[in-house]
Amino acid sequence: MDLSVYASRCVETPEKFSQGHRGCVGCGEVLALRQVFKAVGRDTIVINATGCMEIIASTFPTTTWEIPWIHTLFENTAAVASGIETAYKVMKRKGIYPKDLSVKFLALGGDGATADIGLQALSGAMERGHNFLYVCFDNEAYMNTGVQRSGATPYGASTTTSPAGKTIGQVTWKKNMPAIAIAHNIPYVATANPAYPFDLMEKVKKGQAVEGPAYIHIYSPCPTGWRCPPDLSIRYGRYATESCVFPLFEYENGKYTLNKDIEKPIPVSTYLKGQGRFRHLAEQDVAYIQNHVNNDWAALKKRCQE
Amino acid sequence: MTKEITITVDGRKVKAAEGLYLLDVLKRNNIYVPSLCHHDQVHPYGVCRICIVEMELNGRRKVMSSCNLKIADGQVFHTTSEKLTKERKILMELMLARSSGAKEVIELAQRLGVEETRFPKEDDGCIMCGLCVKACEQVVGVSAIGFESRGPNRKVSAPFDVEAERCIGCGSCVFICPTNFIKMEDKNHVRKIPLWHVELKMKQCKSCGPDIAPEKQLEYIRNKVKLPENFFDTCLNCRP
Lengths: 306, 240
Ligand SMILES: Cc1ncc(C[n+]2csc(CCOP(=O)(O)OP(=O)(O)O)c2C)c(N)n1
Ligand code: SF4
Ligand code: SF4
Ligand code: FES
Prior knowledge:
Chain A is α/β, with parallel strands linked by helices.
């Protein structure tokens, strides 16, 4: 369902991530973050790992966060979220907080913070079943410190620590974070993409409403790190989903749902083309990626039909 | 510049620009008051009354809805009291009766301490908040739908309850409805909104095929912003 023009004007206008931050031109991660914030209430505590979103928005003595916000280290975001959520529960039980208080907890991290360094804490928090939503903004590398590869960097991408030359760039296939979250048997896991804002906001609402841990993996185009034109972030977002490189799906209480079925996927080459990080790929590399994407897509479709 | 004034809310001094609506000021200051028929994109309508607060007036407290109340300097408000809790609970019970299956309504009811309603229940009913009608009028600007009848029979509907001729199928009403009462479906290149008796043909991208949006909606936008005739022949991806 495409609600693009008018319905989008009915989305809440006050921003919880205000103007004046230092994000790059065309940053898809900021856009995704703003969309996430449009779907959450003001009674939300944000627990934010270090990474671009923290660095561009919190330079002392200014702040962009117009919502309760706590900055954490790389490795302990989910652990801090667990602590805050537990403390809140205890305070409520002891009658220190009023019974009708309804606070939600939203942990945010980049792909480095989520798929690599904070994974252990996240796994623990999901296992313990804390009532919180974890959102990973996946721009496919450690962007804030200058484009170092992460576990979520896609195969073939050139980064400063996986430069193309002796090797193809990133030599391994992208780590499948949503599958890792699903393996924890939590009530809600989803993928989202700021090129599909209504789908994204709906998922954030769902993730916040469920009892227990929820995980949303958001594709976040980064023109600086991907070396692509900054006015095309959203287009790359659409290409990623329409080529099945980044499918939109949901996992709810054991059931998979495909949110955007792609009848005729566009070729992966359309997506790769124009991004500097993939510029060196030869025809057979693209064919290899296409083949891998086809297989993953077929497997996902099968799971969604079960 | 607008004048800055000070009001008192629950004993706390709050500064705000003169002429703002109280509910907006409360939200901005993280003071929670429930609301249902309020939305930033439409003028306050003040029908659900769940946003009530008490205002001090000549030594007494008067109950008023906050979403449509313009503040003035020195006013004193209370957002919680036994009376307010009781009234909000009754209102919530009534709304829960009209729409007992809607997530947003259930959530708000629970938050206000209402688990059940004493009144006969409907599943997915309309709570008459008017947001769909207001959005269609003020956001979209086509006024395709309105209210019909009065009293208990009052309902939202297309004029004369036949096909809403002016509807462009944008889905704003569907999106804004807090109870999910308005359904919309895209199937076989047709968009249907049964409540308004609307079925609109979708336009396809000439170059890659998939549906873009209802033809009527694209025509409406094209005329409104004076775009070239062939502007919507292709989808976003295929446009340069
Ligand atoms: C333990 C630790 N190692 C390294 C850093 C330096 N550092 C700060 S932000 C950042 C990159 C974050 O990357 P990612 O989590 O992918 O988020 P992004 O910046 O891409 O949004 C690094 C390496 C740090 N703050 N703490
Ligand atoms: S879909 Fe039709 S009735 Fe609903 S807001 Fe748009 S034009 Fe109005
Ligand atoms: S249909 Fe929905 S938006 Fe319209 S008045 Fe009823 S509850 Fe409100
Ligand atoms: S929100 Fe004020 S009357 Fe409905």
